[in-house]
Design a protein that fits this description.
Layout (H helix, E strand, L loop, with lengths): L10 H29 L2 H4 L13 E11 L2 E9 L6 E9 L7 E8 L6 E9 L6 E10 L4 E5 L3 E4 L7 E2 L6
Antiparallel strand pairs: 1-2, 1-9, 2-5, 3-4, 3-6, 6-7, 6-8
Length: 172
């Protein structure tokens, strides 16, 4: 059942008024939606200025081989939180000669300001099976500025084709 019609107002005029009211409500809803999209963007709300860089960064765990197959390896290490810009990179310099670490792999990370430590993981690809690789790790801000920490040179050997090395603790 609809609303009672005023017998003194022509039907066409009443329908026209309802259509005008619906158009007005639709315009209001569109305006409200556009305003909420423009002024409450969660991405914009989360951008914070960089923190002051840590005076001293140190490696607290690792570096260590997390996992490897014949053509790829993942190296993991933990540092004190370097602070500064939230955008950071873990960097691995590596090669088959400990005196020539001319290959570089980088892994992007976004720092968690609330954590006292940062875990870096970097994947090295295009490796050869059953080959010993020497490496050292460091970290840097997105602009390339080093965090001032670097590990000594250590090594691992990639497994044979079809084999897997997995040093990451598995859930029980």
């Amino acid at each position: 059942m609809g609303a009672a019609r005023d017998p003194h107002t022509p039907l066409k005029e009443q329908q026209s008024g309802v259509c005008s009211m619906n158009r007005l409500l639709l315009q209001l809803a569109i305006t409200a939606l556009a305003g909420s999209l423009l002024f409450s963007n969660p991405i914009v709300a989360q951008i914070l200025p960089p923190q002051k860089r840590a005076a001293h960064v140190e490696i607290t765990k690792g570096p260590e081989l997390e996992s490897a197959v014949s053509y790829m390896a993942i190296v993991r290490w933990t540092t004190t939180n370097p602070r500064g810009d939230d955008e950071h990179y873990g960097v691995v310099h590596y090669g088959t000669d400990p005196e020539d670490l001319s290959q570089t792999a980088k892994g992007h990370i976004r720092l968690n300001r609330a954590h006292p430590e940062t875990i870096f993981r970097v994947r090295m690809v295009d490796l050869k099976p059953q080959t010993t690789y020497y490496y050292k790790v460091s970290s840097m801000e997105a602009d390339g500025e080093s965090d001032g920490v670097e590990s000594p040179v250590i090594h691992f050997t990639t497994p044979a084709l079809g084999e897997v090395i997995n040093n990451y603790p598995q859930p029980k």
